[in-house]
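Task 17 of the worksheet. Students: predict the tertiary structure of the chain below and write it out as structure tokens. Keep your answer in the requested format; marks are given for formatting as well as content.
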Amino acid sequence: MPSPRRSPAAQTTLQVLGTQWLTPGLVRVTLGGDTFEDYPDRVETDKYAKLYFPPAGSALRPPFDLAALRDSIPFEDLPTVRTYTLRRVDAVRRVIDIDFVVHGDVGVAGPWAASAQPGDTLTLSAPGGGFTPAADADHLLLIGDESALPAIAAALESLPAGLPTTALLETRSPEHRVELPVSAARVTWIDEEHDAPGARLVEAVGTLAWPAGVVQVFAHGERGAMKALRPLLAERGVERSHLSLSAYWAAGRTEDAFQAEKRLPVGQIFPG
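Model answer:
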């Protein structure tokens, strides 16, 4: 007997209020409108949501029940789903900011964000959460590339008082660096080696003068780089309970291929 179909996750549709190019490859989309109060917030600094992108000209209307739609329409007519960090849920301004990395017309979410106009709509799932700076750590180490900048910037805004913090950040070039929240963090910017994204980031971690005491680590970015970081961090005694290590993308893979490979050994950061 087939298992009962699960109800679709809660979704909220918001309006684009405006966009802002933070760098030549990072655009912030600000969302809001009458449904803002319907959207829940979370305490984590690394909070993320699934975003739904119907094909151009689609007659589908949210909320999107993907399980039901798969049984009734062709695959190419389904909404594309992408998971993104929420840079900020601002209850005072009644807006949500999402920062999108853009590589020209490659992909779905980046091109949508690059061309978004006020009045456009975007449907989001309720957020999940994965990381918050720990007040009981002796040092916080933030490691990431451009895809991790929103979560790292949010963490820098929420540092517990007096928590020593180091950030190692890799971007395509100096012009892709972002303005970070004012904090006492020591920030090192690294220029990407374009044929090996993340390699210089891993090298910087390997040569870092390791902080004393309990070190909490947030490391997110390109899959190969994150896999290379895992044994380095283990050698330095970082416990799993103090480690948030994950891949946001994989060099040479489309987003759909990257997502499909998450279930395979090649896509796993930690061995099964």
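Marker's comment: The radius of gyration is 19 Å. The chain has a mean pLDDT of 93.
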